[in-house]
Amino acid sequence: MQAWRVHRNGEPSEVMELEETDRPTPGDGQVLLKVRAANINFPDALLCRGQYQVRPPLPFTPGVEICGETEDGRRVLATPALPEGGFAEYVVADEAALLPAPDALDDAEAAALHIGYQTGWFGLHRRAHLQAGETLLVHAAAGGVGSAAVQLGKAAGATVIGVVGGPEKAAVARELGCDLVIDRRSEDIVAAVKEATAGRGADVVYDPVGGDAYAKSVKCIAFEGRVVVVGFASGAIPTPGLNHALVKNYSIVGLHWGLYNSKDPAAVRACHDELTKLAAQGVVNPLISERVPMAEAARAVQRVADGTSTGRIVVLPSGDAR
Question: Coil, helix or strand for 2?
Answer without folding.
Answer: strand
